[in-house]
Amino acid sequence: MHMDASLSQPEENRRRGKPLRRWFWIVGGGLVLFVAGLVANYQYLAHSSAPLMFDKPADIPKARVGLVLGTSRYINPRTKLQNLYFNYRMDAAAKLFHAKRVEVLLVSGNSYGPGQTEIEDMRAALQRRGVPAHRILEDPKGLRTLDSLLRCKRVLGERRFVVISQPFHNERAIFLSQHHGLDVVGFNAKPVRHRTLDVLREQIREHLARVKAMLDIFVLDTKARFPGKPRTIRWPSSRKE
Q1: Do residues 70 and 119 make contact, with C-beta atoms less than 8 angstroms apart?
Q2: pLDDT, tens digit (0-9, with 9 covering 90-100), for 68-100
Q3: Please, are residues 170 and 139 in contact by the beta-carbon 8 Å criterion?
Q4: Which of 44, 51, 82, 222 is geometrically suited to a Cys-Cys bond with 216, CB 3.0 to 4.6 A?
């Protein structure tokens, strides 16, 4: 009896190991597919958006609206550490406006809850850069990129406009726009190249946002959380500066 039990132990160990190996291959295969999907996702977004993104104002077709996609002024509000994504984005928006490629700048971000000041901060930053107050429109319910795009179409009635953000963000915005019948080009703000934890966090967030963008388009058919009502805009291009 002792010999039989001894001989059966390896067989028992092999049987126990089979489920573990099976799960190892399932999890490993899933990770490989996930990484491959991210790479394909990036390639697809970059390829489809590249012809519609520009670095020089002169290359941007004239439009009535430049949509400035929202971001926070500070990386950490408590330490008042400046967010370079914000600074470079405001620089780009002002540069495009002063080059007379757009008539107004629509600042769109999340100022819907207590303590949310994205819109106020963007407006103030643009005015410091010489953009007149009456040339700045506000959308405080641009909770995410898709909301900002769809609300520009719904509220302002604009299907053709310029999105202003960093290149990685413009790629995703143009991809979303194309699938909603919008005629959008992107003006690239200066990229943030500093290797910091905050930049890494932003890059990780962008990875996840791109996956969500694919789901929004091909699976969920996501709409704007606050669609908004169309409104009549007195375009200020006729006003004397």
Answers
A1: yes
A2: 999 888 877 677 778 889 999 999 999 999 999
A3: no
A4: 222
Identify the residue whose tokens are 């009635």: 157
Spatial CA neighbour of 225 closest among 163, 117, 139:
139
Residue 52 CA to its chain's centroid (Å): 16
CA–CA separation, 68 and 156 (whole Å): 14
Distance CA 170, CA 189 (A): 9
Which residues are CB-neighbours of 194 under 8 A, at least 6 positions away? 84
Structure tokens at 207: 């990875």
Spatial CA neighbour of 71 closest among 11, 144, 134, 150: 144
Separation of alpha carbons 56 and 71, rounded Å: 22
CB 96 within 8 A of CB 164: yes
End-to-end CA distance of the chain: 101
- CB-based contacts of 143: which residues, under 8 Å, 6+ apart? 110, 112, 225, 226
Q: What is the CA radius of gyration of the chain?
A: 24
pLDDT per position as a tens digit, 128-140 = 999 999 999 999 8
Q: How far apart are CA 208 and CA 218, in angstroms?
A: 16
CB atoms within 10 A of CB 71: 24
Rounded distance between C-alpha atoms, residue 119 and residue 73, angstroms: 10
In this structure, CATH architecture of domain 50-231: 3-Layer(aba) Sandwich (3.40)
Give the residue extent of every domain in the chain.
Answer: 50-231
Cα(38)–Cα(4) distance, integer angstroms: 52
